Amino acid sequence: MIKRASALGAILGVLLLLVVAACDSGSGVTGSDEDDVVEPPQPPAGAQIVWPLDLTDQPDADSISFPYGPRALATRYDFHAGIDIPATPGTPVYSVLPGRVVLVSHWDGSSSGPGNAVLVAHSEDRSTSYLHLRNIEVSEGDSLELGERLGTVGQTGAVTPHLHLGYFVGLPRDTNVRDERLSKNPLELLPHTEPEPIEAEFTTQGVVLNVPIQRMTIRSIELSGQGDSRTLDYYEIVARGFTPRDEQVQNRVEIDAGRPENDRFDLPLRPLDFNPDRVVVTDIYGDVILDISR
Q1: Residue 181 and residue 241 in contact, taking contact as beta carbons nearer than 8 Å
Q2: How far apart are the first and last CA of the chain?
Q3: Which of 21, 36, 114, 180 has the fewest CB atoms lying closer than 10 Å?
Q4: What phi and psi, each to the nearest 5 degrees, are found at residue 208?
Q5: In angstroms, rounded to a whole number, what is the distance separating the alpha carbons of residues 274 and 230?
Q6: What torsion do the CA atoms of 71, 72, 75, 81 make, to the nearest 10 degrees?
């Protein structure tokens, strides 16, 4: 029995020496995973701006679930001061422009609101914000290149996972406040194709606009009739502040919003003083995109 055990030990020793020799012979088995390092994605060459999730300057690259302006949530109406981009939690979020991180705020774990959020100041008095993040991967004072990763999609402070992208004009570059009174439609920045036409249907008390979600570029709506007129300017509404902007009566026009359906939503409008017989809609570039009479 002793002789057999000694012979078996000798055989195992020889096998071990052969394995070690093979590893040292340059066979490529080094135990290192350096070859598995994946380079981070880069924005397209020559890009001036990118979408925050798709990291491309192609039009309409990220899907929008709620546009800027009036919207219907599950239980209430509000005026949305940005765009919502749905995505799987953990999806990387990138800076749409080069800039400097001026505010990092962390979720308290229970309240609704921005959740984990980052504010980036850019050139020309412009800023962008990234809300409801799962992880924040930058610090205040960091300089970001175009398309540099700053966090991941989450649902902190929200009921569904998505990125809320805000765009601001006029925030001081040294501010540490995300003042949504200065927010503008992010489609002023992001590449997008021609919006689908807005449809209008007059009712006995007002008008219902049927509006696309992905490329919603409305800036103002003028309602006129019976010698009177009212204008709803989206930027004037948001400039009133967080609570006043959510009031459904603005400039004596009652606003409602239908739930999204087939990438569009209804926008019923009812002036309190008259029944409109004409609607003129102007977009964020100052162009008239709808002019229709009863």
Answers
A1: yes
A2: 107
A3: 36
A4: -120, 120
A5: 10
A6: -10
Residue 262 has, within 13 A of its CA and on its CB side, a CA count of: 4
pLDDT given for residue 5 in this prediction: 40
> What is 69-188's CATH superfamily?
Glucose Permease (Domain IIA) (2.70.70.10)
pTM of the model: 0.86
Contacts of 183 (CB under 8 A, 6+ apart): 68, 81, 82, 166, 167, 168, 238
**Which residue positions in the chain have pLDDT lower than 70?**
1-37, 174-175
Q: Cβ-count burial of 142 within 10 angstroms (0-12 exposed, 13-18 middle, 19+ buried)?
A: middle
Task: Say whether 145 sits in a helix, a strand or coil.
Answer: coil
Given this model, what pLDDT does residue 6 score?
A: 44
Q: What are phi and psi of 156, to 5 degrees?
A: -65, 125
pLDDT of residue 35: 52
Q: Which of 152, 174, 171, 169 is nearest to 161 (CA)?
A: 152
The helix or strand, by DSSP H or E, that contains position 21, with its residue range, turns out to be helix 2-24
Considering only CA atoms, which of 201, 200, 207 is closest in space to residue 255? 207
Sheet strands (E) in the chain: 69-72, 77-80, 83-86, 92-94, 99-105, 116-121, 126-136, 143-144, 149-153, 162-169, 183-184, 199-202, 207-212, 218-225, 228-233, 249-250, 253-255, 264-271, 278-283, 288-293
Per-domain boundaries in the chain: 69-188, 199-293
* Contact criterion met (CB below 8 Å) for 115 and 132: yes
Q: How crowded is residue 87: how many other Cβ atoms within 10 Å of its Cβ? A: 21
Cα–Cα distance measured from residue 72 to residue 80, given in angstroms and rounded to the nearest whole number: 10
Taking each continuous run of H as one helix and of E as one strand, the counts in the chain are: 2, 20
